[in-house]
Amino acid sequence: MALLPGFKTTEPFKIRAYDVDNQKRVTVPALMKCMHEAAMTNAIHLNLSVWDLEPHHISWVLMRKKLTIHRAPILGEQIKVQTYPAGFEKFFTYRDYIVRDEQGVIIAQAATTWLLMDTKTRKMARIPDFILSLEMPDPTTCLPRLPMKVGKFGATHLQQDFRVGWYDLDFNMHLNNLYYLQWILETLPDDILQNRQLKDINILYKLECKWKEEVVAETEKISDSFFRHRLIRRSDNKEVVLAETNWRE
What we know:
The protein is α+β, with helices and mostly antiparallel strands. It has two domains: 9-141, Roll (Thiol Ester Dehydrase, Chain A); 158-248, Thiol Ester Dehydrase, Chain A (Roll), CATH 3.10.129. The chain has five helices and eleven strands. It has helices at 28-45, 50-53, 129-132, 177-186, 190-195, and strands at 9-14, 58-69, 78-89, 92-100, 106-118, 124-125, 158-163, 197-205, 214-221, 226-233, 238-248. Helix 1 runs antiparallel to helix 4 (177-186). The N and C termini lie far apart (46 Å). The mean pLDDT is 93.
């Protein structure tokens, strides 16, 4: 069976002034926003968007992401983000992202794992048949699937407190996954943020955070270029996110 038209979506983006850091390079949250926008367009084409799933009381929730950045695009640069569903496994679905520059060179890529949340119970939901019936691409043409674990967090060397605001929420009424990422990066040493470039990030989303909840972002320095991170929900001291980041000069 041939893949449906629109199964793969390629969206163009221009790196704007509000997307860049002090070196005029795209920030990690801004690059991920481009990826999410491309995924929304793809989901609409496949009739799997938030509007299509609402009658079934289910919604997509990001669980894992491994983002690798080969080169960060700069202010004014045009990029293209390609994304597509990459298969199913039990309760989990997979989605890939490929980011190219104007010459078609791959400058970033990400493999992700998603699950469906029952919007009434807030628990994991089974993948319905109308999604499972979609023809998936050959796995050998997709990015490698991610392991389900991130390295265990050890000692806290840096930390910062945050509170979930109204404008931090997404349409699932919990903290937008971009803010989880942004908050853990805020705890990095100044030299890393000012002078290094992210090579890759491996992030595991474990629990949701809701409006007005307080969280603490903690970072453990493993080496000069490798860090572990987590977010802790203050109300019950549970880990809501675990992550690892690698940096280069």
